[in-house]
């Protein structure tokens, strides 16, 4: 659900940059790694895993569309909302800068849709409220709600940006239903990862879900998730669906074509220079499978390093 600069005006982009940075300041103030030093590498590993998982687009049968994991809910459950949000911000920045996925003008909007809404709306107001009543189904329901809310937000943002080819009512009417379906798959993936971690930390999982900021994460679990991230980015991502994702599919349904020219040419120019792994491939490499695998592995490592740098810097700022 990455919005490109072609769908966001500079004014709207700047407003969402402000909202996202304000949320980052709040997250920095609230995040606490002092009680559990292993949360820092866990955040890096989970960032790398989410990056890799987002590379795999899965086909939505009967639609011609595809979807991919958002990951915001998963990060919030395993890391807590504040550390999860900082991890998502770092992940989206790597994608926008080096992979041309999303845009720099639209970065704040993407952070809002995939980070703020999941970590600070869905996680506390939906997941934590429902988990004692619905059990495992709370994860699936929350994922569906998160994708639907994010899709609605995209329609609001394009409408505010004056994209006349995407009338709000019609665009939202297409965007929301397809992302509710994608949310079902995301819920299943999120549930599977949480259940997988239960094999390593069954006595601590309840604490992770209720008080994630102080939860302990064994190294065995981190090694497993890191290995899975490498396998996905370095191999499985090559077999991702070629169908347009939910956002592109919705734009095509409404506007019949996907806007290619950015509203703000300066942002596009910067991104053209920075996007050295455009379309998640190594430039100039003929073997597509190796090209995608190397780009995915590099992106996962960059995400891991940036997450750890951001969180470590946040801790030092707090100490000062």
TrEMBL record:
Annotated compartments: Cell membrane
Entry annotated with the keyword Chloroplast: no
Membrane topology: Multi-pass membrane protein
Gene3D superfamilies the UniProt entry points to: 1.10.1760.20
Protein name per the record: Energy-coupling factor ABC transporter permease
Keyword Transmembrane among UniProt keywords: yes
InterPro entries: CbiM/NikMN, PDGLE_dom
Phylogenetic placement of the source organism: Bacteria, Bacillati, Bacillota, Clostridia, Eubacteriales
Bilayer-crossing regions: 40-60, 72-98, 104-125, 137-156, 168-197, 221-240, 290-311
Family matches, as Pfam families: CbiM (PF01891), PDGLE (PF13190)
Signal peptide per UniProt: none
Keywords per UniProt: Cell membrane, Membrane, Transmembrane, Transmembrane helix, Transport
Domain annotation PDGLE: ranges: 220-312
Subcellular location, principal: membrane
